[in-house]
Design brief:
Layout: E1 6-8, E2 14-16, E3 20-21, H1 27-40, E4 44-46, H2 54-64, E5 72-77, H3 87-101, E6 106-111, H4 121-133, E7 137-143, H5 147-156, E8 163-167, H6 175-184, E9 187-191, H7 198-201, H8 204-213, H9 217-228, E10 231-232, H10 239-246, H11 255-262
Parallel strand pairs: 3-4, 4-5, 5-6, 6-7, 7-8, 8-9, 9-10
Antiparallel strand pairs: 1-2
Amino acid sequence: MNQVPVIRLNNGTLMPRLGFGVFQIPDSEAEQAVGTALEAGYRSIDTAAAYGNERGTGKAIAAAGVPRGELFVTTKLWNGRSRTWRRDDVLRAFDGSLAKLGLEQIDLYLIHWPRPMRDDFLTIWKTFEEIAADGRARAVGVSNFRPADLERLGGESALVPAVNQIELHPLFPQAGLRALHGRLGIATEAWSPLGQGKELLTLPAVAETAAKHGRSAAQVVLRWHLQLGNIVIPKSVTPSRIRENLDVFGFELDAADLAALDALATGPSAGRIGPDPAVFDV
C-alpha cells in the first residue's frame, strides 16, 4: 500500500495530501468507486451535498471495514438553491450530510461557494464555528474563496479556515492565492487537479515529462501538485486509473520538469475551467 504523506492543518488535525474525489460520480456508482479507492489504499474521501452521492459514499465507507480513525472524510455545505442561508439552515444541512454518510463526525466541512452576491457566508461561517466547537467536525474550511472573501472572514472571525479548496492545475496555478494561504496558515487543496483531463494531459510539456519518467501524464501532474505543497483529490471510476493516481510517490520531478509545467500557466490553453466564484450563484 502506498504511504500517503499527511499535512498538519492549522488546528492540528492531520489530513492526507492525496485523496479520492467523487465529483460527477452518480450516487448509484459511488459505492463501487469509493470501495475500489479504499481497497487501493486511499484514506481520504472528498464528497459534497451538491454532488448527490453522500449516501453511496457512506455505504462504501461502511462496507470497507476500514477503522474510522484511519479515514478522513470531507463534505461540503450546498449553500445554494437561490436563497440566503441562516444558522438553522446550516445546522439542518450538516445533520443531513451526517445522516447520508452514516457518520457521527465529519473530518473536514467546507462552505462550497462564497456567493458574495448573497452576502451570507459570514453567517454560515459563524455556524461552522459552532459545529467545530462542538467537535462534530474535526476541522472546517472553505472552497472557492477569493482573497477578498478570506480577508472579510478574517476581519469578522478568529477562526481561520483550515483549508481552501480551489480550482488549481498547471493551466490555472493560482500562485497569488496560494501565497495568501501560506501567509494565513490555510492549506491549499486542488479540485480538478488534472484540469478535467484531455487538453492538459495531452500537452507536449506534460507528455514529454511523463515519457521521461516512464509515468502517465496524470501521475506527472499529480506529482507537480504534491511538490508544490498542494492537497489533491483526483477522481475516476476506472479501477486501473484509481490505482494509478495513488502511485505517485516513487519518483520526483526535477527543476526542469517543474519549470516546463509551470510555463503552461502562460500558454494558449491557460485559464480557469470551472465557474468564477465572483459571479457563481449555485
